[in-house]
Amino acid sequence: MGIRLRKAEEKFFRVIMFISSLIIALTLLIIIFSILYKGLPSLSWDMIFKTPKGGFYYGKEGGVLNAIIGSLYLSFGSTFLAFILGLPLALYMNIHLVKRRKLVNAIRFLLDLSWGIPSIVYGAFGFTLMIYLGMKTSLLAGIITVTLFILPIMVRAIDEVVKTVPGGLLESALSLGSTRSETAYRIFFKQCVPGIITAILLSFGRGIGDAASVLFTTGYTDYIPTSLLQPTATLPLSIFFQLSSPIPEVQNRAYASAVILVVIILIISILSRLFTKKYQKNQINF
Amino acid sequence: MIICLVIVIALPFILGIGLYFKSTLLLKDHTLIDLLTTSDWKPLSGKFGFLTFIISSLWVTFIALVIAGPICLLTTIHLTQYADKWVLKIMHPVIDILAGIPSVIYGVWGILVVVPFISKYAGPFFGRDVSGYSILAGGIVLSIMIMPFILNILIEVFNTIPSELKEASLSLGASKWQTIKHILVRKAFPGIISAFGLGVSRAFGETIAVLMVVGNVTKIPKGVFQPGYPLPALIANNYGEMLSIPLYDSALMLAALILFVVVLLFNMASRLAIIRVEKYK
């Protein structure tokens, strides 16, 4: 092949590669722009601060406050539970089991597998579990299901952060006479706080955005739940239900609700970006 | 701590066992082969053929991969080998945000943009009169959903290739593109295949977004412009009626089990392959 042809080939592929990067960036812009364009005109304070009144799904007044609050309850609850279960595990893997590489890798592998299981499967399993335990569709059943769903994400995300702490820190803490648990919670935890917050935000975002896992377990209601045993609405499902209405006005409200969800997700994304930046700044470098 | 450990380790196993027990009711008087190879879906008269749903799932996943695969590979090479700092600065958050957008939003976007595009432009272009709610729409929406996922893995794979390899190739007089084409891509090949495998398993289980644009007609799709009815959509669409008919309930749990097994196998194979690739580091 002549050198000129070779150069041309490289140039050709460079152009294509640049275009495909551009496609990805543009797609994101198109998605956000088209949701905002369609949803913003229908977005009003009523949408955010009112619960559905009678006939909301036939175009009468009201808003999706029930779904916003329901989603927040659900994701706060399950993120909290997943954190309580996940943080000790992630620290345990990196501090107590630090010598048993094979075991830790096996756990990581299983966690990655659990991460890959579709959320609808978690939903179906949560439903089975709920029937087995004799529960009704409720906030609690939803929280349990979502906790199972985000637990692997939480553990792996914290694990990735803790993994980056230099091994010397563990050795010096232990040589100063602290126990492994003290090292875990007093030293490693503090060192990783910003990264752990990012992990929490990631799990929270997953929890608030997922519809399939809570489809069977939370039920749906127009009211804001006042106890864990009541059914609750969620934002993704609310969007889904409004969109399947034949009435254009209700569909427009679905687009407005989509704007609310997108804004929540963007806020989470920006926050976690800020924390990651801070994390890099605070880290001790050896 | 041990309890948390046990919960987490046992999670996939419990999931599988739970779903299996729920689906034994159906498996008692239907053979698995029968269920998987017939397409007769009439739950009320006791006929449960999953073939339609399986074929729809395969179609949608295939299209998603065909679209996402090349774009992701090219973008990865661009980002890891050629790109300036400012490109990385833009693309990193873009990939992160794409990964974080909830699937229901992708579904809304599909209805707003992809479905009208297919019915107004793509369909007529091929001389078809279509509604737009089709396998193709599902595939397009899905391809964008799995892109950030495949990209993240591909970037990691390309970053683990030792730079000595590249230096050796360059010092022998190969051009940068030749090095990429003959050395890097070849070296990363198992990693690329596994990244695509993980993308496939992601795509296969995705529910709400696909459900919203794919049409949901219980008929084996004959082409990309026809509506389809993937497995996850089947489970999600019927959750209201599940309790009333035990056999129906069992059939949907079997659908979840099939999904679980397929995704798990794909996941396992791909992850093992990636672990092997990363060992070369």
Please give a quick description of this structure.
The complex is a heterodimer of chains A (286) and B (281). Chain A is 74% helix and 0% strand. With 286 residues, chain A is mostly helical.
Describe the structure.
The complex is a heterodimer of chains A (286) and B (281). Chain A is an all-alpha fold. Helix content of chain A is 74%, strand content 0%. Chain A has ten helices and no strands. Chain A has helices at 3-39, 45-49, 65-95, 101-116, 119-132, 139-163, 167-175, 180-209, 235-243, 248-282. The radius of gyration of chain A is 23 Å and the shape is globular. The model of chain A has no long low-confidence stretch (mean pLDDT 83). In chain B, 77% of the residues lie in helices and 1% in strands. Chain B is built from eleven helices and two strands. In chain B, helix 10 (231-237) packs across helix 11 (246-279). In chain B, strand 1 (41-42) and strand 2 form a beta hairpin. A two-stranded antiparallel sheet of chain B has the order 1-2. With 281 residues, chain B is an all-alpha fold. Chain B has helices at residues 2-29, 32-37, 51-82, 85-100, 103-125, 135-160, 163-171, 176-205, 208-213, 231-237, 246-279; strands at residues 41-42, 47-48. At the A-B interface, helix 1, helix 3, helix 4, helix 5 and helix 6 of A face helix 1, helix 3, helix 4, helix 5 and helix 6 of B.
Largest interface pair: A-B, 75 and 77 residues
Enumerate the strands of the largest sheet of chain B in spatial order, edge to edge or round the barrel: 1-2
Distance between the termini of chain B: 32 Å
Number of helical elements of chain A: 10
Largest sheet of chain A: none
Shape annotation of chain A: globular
**DSSP, total strands of chain B:** 2
User: Could you report the average pLDDT of chain A, rounded to the nearest whole number?
Assistant: 83
